[in-house]
Amino acid sequence: MARPTSATIHTDALRHNLGQLRARAPGSRVMAVVKADGYGHGLERVARALGAADAFGVAALSDAERLRAAGLSQPIVLLSGINEPDDIARVRELGVESVVHHHSQLEMLEQAPAGAPVRCWLKVDSGMHRLGFAPEAVRDAHARLEAAPAVAADIVLMNHFASSDEFEGDNGAGRQTREQLRVFAEATAGLPGARSLANSAGVLGWPQAHADWIRPGGALYGMSVVAGTTGADFGLRPAMTLATRLIAINPVCRGEHIGYSATWTCPEDMPVGVAAIGYGDGYPRAAPAGTPVLVNGQPAQVIGRVSMDLMAVDLRGVDARVGDPVILWGPELPVERIAEGAGTIAYELTCSITRRVRFVEQ
Ligand SMILES: *Cc1c(COP(=O)(O)O)cnc(C)c1O
């Protein structure tokens, strides 16, 4: 029998979420961010479902190649831009737009051979200090891009938020985002062109940052990065169900220990289920005992250490037989809850699903 572990991708949820984000930012175009294989949901599958997006954002030129090979003709923006001069020819062939965040990229574009102009997204470092030109260098970079024959005339101005998941509130909450908005506005004042500021949390919590283009990733997949919330709190629907089956149910006596390093002790004689999923499938090993799962739709808990292929489940009070379905996350069990227990964010969990998991589209 095939391994029963599967990730079901709900393409209707992807479309629903795109609609929700459009409704929140009616004046903005939407760049659907599909980097990291569509946050682990499958690049081509996600892009087809989100065909109504105005553009796709990717982190690698190889992703742009895959999207074009799949027949998708929407604009594609390379979010980290080009890495070497030869990338310019590929960018032109594929009709890809490029973020320009560093002097080295500016120089490559200035020295590019004649050819089709590349549309550029000039990135301002408004305070995250990851990628982008310092505020005082933005005007010079913009002028040089405008003067470069390889660069198309309509340059977009963008930044990226470090803390937009913290919404504006009392006690100065949201201070960094307010400051980033101020720095970006000042650095770009008077420059022509569209603006793009907001990631998912920016769309959900910072309407003043919607601008001309929003760039949601996680929210499209139904995930929230706002602490203590789930996508459903924002009207979003999870796009992935991770599921497996019970492959054993064993009676274990009181005082016996479960799993590697014997980290969990049975408080009474009890049935212990074994589910065919582990960190080799991408389920987080850091998920502690007590992490929720659904067995036959009933709440149950992980016990002991998650191992590579398997996990143990406390089946006390649960009606279950070998072969019954176990849901690890999905619409009935928010992935954000699992992430919180494992000390990470939902994005990392969906991105970590491994190749042996069977993907199903629904
Ligand atoms: C990943 C990314 C996004 C999307 O972020 P989410 O939090 O998933 O919405 C937007 N813009 C840039 C530049 C990114 O790298």
TrEMBL record:
Annotated substrate binding sites: 130, 308
Isomerase recorded as keyword: yes
Cofactors demanded by this protein: pyridoxal 5'-phosphate
SUPFAM superfamilies the UniProt entry points to: Alanine racemase C-terminal domain-like, PLP-binding barrel
Entry EC no(s): 5.1.1.1
SMART domains cross-referenced by the UniProt entry: Ala_racemase_C
Entry-annotated residues carrying N6-(pyridoxal phosphate)lysine: 35
UniProtKB keywords: Isomerase, Pyridoxal phosphate
Ranges where the Alanine racemase C-terminal domain occurs: 239-362
Active-site residues, as the UniProt record annotates them: 35, 260
A single GO molecular function term of this UniProt record: alanine racemase activity
Name of the top EC class for this enzyme: isomerase
Pathway, per record: Cell wall biogenesis; peptidoglycan biosynthesis; Amino-acid biosynthesis; D-alanine biosynthesis; D-alanine from L-alanine: step 1/1
Reactions catalysed: L-alanine = D-alanine
Primary role: Catalyzes the interconversion of L-alanine and D-alanine. May also act on other amino acids.
Protein family: Belongs to the alanine racemase family.
Protein name (Swiss-Prot/TrEMBL): Alanine racemase
Organism per entry: Novilysobacter selenitireducens
Taxonomic lineage from the root: Bacteria, Pseudomonadati, Pseudomonadota, Gammaproteobacteria, Lysobacterales
Gene name linked to the record: alr
